[in-house]
Amino acid sequence: MMNCILLADGSRVDVGDMIGNGMDGFVIRKGCHVLKIPHLYGSIHPDGKVEPSSENEWYVGRLELEKEVYERLHGVPGIAECIECTSNGILLQYYANGSLREYMAEHEPPSLHRRWNWVLQATDTNARCHEKGVLVFDIATRNFVLTDDLDLRIIDFSNSSLLPLSVDINLAAVDGSTVKVDLLHLSCVIHSIMSWQPFSVDCAMESEWPPIDQIPELKGLEYGRVMHDCWTRMYPGIREMIVELHLFVHRPIRAVD
Question: Which SUPFAM superfamilies does this UniProt record tie to the protein (predicted)?
């Protein structure tokens, strides 16, 4: 018997349309959109009948939290456009320029002005997520896509946490995920953009916080103080960080010694 990929409604997926395969699901191209679906498989019998895998029931609800996050963030600037959430998956706008990580691998560094704009877009967007009660967690260059105008849009909330709006997100912790963890990963994205070199750290929760000697050399970097303060958990929330960043764009300050 041959294996195939299925939608939740039982229909088969044309593997030629598949453009992504992650831990949390497949991504298939649908014209000017993409559909993110859970990992659902089937077996094709000789008579053409498709038998769904017995494990599909576990995967079918895999995207439910991410759907709730996209619904909470609907219309928020800086978020990848979600067209609709259905039983089959999450229908999103297709961004032909790909991810920021891909763009960095294929292009020389753009102007300093462009890179500062990306830094501000990334931080502003994550601030809006926090205002909406979303701990993003998986903040990385691979999860920012580029519009036709080369603006950033954040995508992929499969590992995010959705909190009640009444909760002070700066004090919240969900399975070890906190605002400070978000700021740590965001600081790595900032360094990646400004240095044009991919940089990240493994930290899924505050108890796994990386030692300070893993931080890149910051001497002479305008954003060095911000990155240092993210790593040393000095900011109570993203707003304090973002206010400083906006000042740095217009007024160079002393870098970390």
Answer: Protein kinase-like (PK-like)
pLDDT in tens, 74-87: 999 999 999 999 99
The string of pLDDT tens digits covering residues 89-117 is 999 999 999 999 999 999 999 999 999 99
Each domain of the chain, given as residue ranges in start order, spans 2-93, 100-250
pLDDT score of 255: 37
For 100-250, which CATH superfamily applies? Transferase(Phosphotransferase) domain 1 (1.10.510.10)
Classify the C-alpha dihedral 126-129-134-138 as positive or negative.
negative
Angle at 145 between CA 90 and CA 187, to 5 degrees: 115
Element (H, E) at 224: helix 224-231
- At 14-24, the pLDDT tens digits run 989 999 888 88
SS3 state at 94 = coil
Q: Where would I find the beta strands (DSSP E) of 125-249?
A: 134-135, 144-146, 152-154, 161-162
* pTM, rounded to two decimals: 0.91
Residue indicated by tokens 């990646």: 192
Q: Is the pLDDT of residue 182 over 80?
A: yes
Q: How far apart are CA 191 and CA 43, in angstroms?
A: 46
Question: Phi then psi for 126, rounded to 5 degrees?
Answer: -70, -30
Q: What is the dihedral of CA 126, 22, 19, 155, to 10 degrees?
A: -10
Residues paired with 18 in a beta bridge = 28
